Amino acid sequence: MPKINLSGVEKNYGGNSANAVADLDLEIGDGEFMCLLGPSGCGKTTTLRMIAGLEHLTAGEIRVGQRVVDSVVDGVFVPPEKREMGLVFQSYALWPHLTIERNTDFGLRLRKMPKAEREQRVDQVMKTLGIEKYRDRYPSQLSGGQQQRVALARMLAVNPEVLLLDEPLSNLDAALRLEMRAELKRLHREFKTTIVFVTHDQWEAMTLATTIAVMSEGELQQVGTPNDIYERPANRFVAQFVGNPPINIVELGDGKSEVSQLANAYLGARFAELRDAGSIGIRPEAIRLADAERGVADGAVAGQAEVTGILPTGGSWIIELTAGGEKLFMTTHQSPEVEVGEAVTWWAKSKALHVFDKAGQRMEV
Ligand code: ATP
């Protein structure tokens, strides 16, 4: 049974505004680490706030386990404090006048847990998060990352069944973000909490989530494992939003460009039924250069191009190819043996091609 179930959920903030979230059906399984991923303004935070009970729905229903916590039709609304969920937002406000220990202890005191039990729990959580050495300090005496840990400890101490996190790592520098991601993953394994995590950072979602829900303009685009989302994007939006450098998109419509002619010929020859295809996507890492030893793989799509740029990215390279005025980007982990200005043959395995119809929806090939 899903832990959290959103069915036909809609949120409109009133006035003449478009729906911030529209007709959203989403199941979040027990113990799942679900990332809500999408660009700024797509409705991620609104969705999280509705799950938390900080926003009322304008249509639909949310259930947690068997219990309806918000239903427009039935007029049910369970307030946030009765939903047994922990929330950590980007600004993880700690109590400035309380020590780290007292901050961590805060929720347990509210719940009137007996002292001995409370102390044991606080010790355990502070140890897990590596903050026991700061127990007597005040928040202002800690770095941003340490404060972030305290905010998480405060949430975990009350052992919520569901943890709701809204870009909780966004204030941290790159190294600390990575460290905290690893820590969050470990905590998820250890505590088996159901986590809903909002981020606009596809890399963050790919590294953390067991399931990703991609949103755009208030609408759910795809739900799947990080691998599904990357390998089998449901539409052009998902294909382009996930992946760095982004996927190459070749428009098939005009059939004028060299790459599109190649792709058209390829599709025409092998997939007559795909004549409606609007575009093709090729991930940069799927493109290879042919050389004397390793030619073009059997059944691959291949074409001629000129190398028009080589961008080192530290341990890997992005190579810009120009084929008949059209740009294709490829990545490689091997030091490139080509130079800018050189004519090359590129190729990609046919199974690496993503085909989208004119409406941008994935077509199976
Ligand atoms: P971000 O990553 O920038 O926080 P988001 O994906 O979390 O974006 P939301 O904050 O959920 O997006 O916003 C979705 C839409 O709803 C946006 O168009 C936003 O302007 C609008 N919106 C959000 N909160 C309110 C509010 N309190 N009143 C009116 N409109 C709002």
TrEMBL record:
This is Iron(III) transport system ATP-binding protein. SMART domains: AAA. Pfam families: ABC_tran, TOBE_2. Keywords: ATP-binding, Cell membrane, Membrane, Nucleotide-binding, Translocase, Transport. Belongs to the ABC transporter superfamily. Residues 4-242 form the ABC transporter domain. GO terms for molecular function: ATP binding. The keyword Nucleotide-binding applies. InterPro entries: AAA+_ATPase, ABC_transporter-like_ATP-bd, ABC_transporter-like_CS, ABC_transpr_MalK/UgpC-like, Mo/tungstate-bd_C_term_dom, NA-bd_OB-fold, P-loop_NTPase, Transp-assoc_OB_typ2.
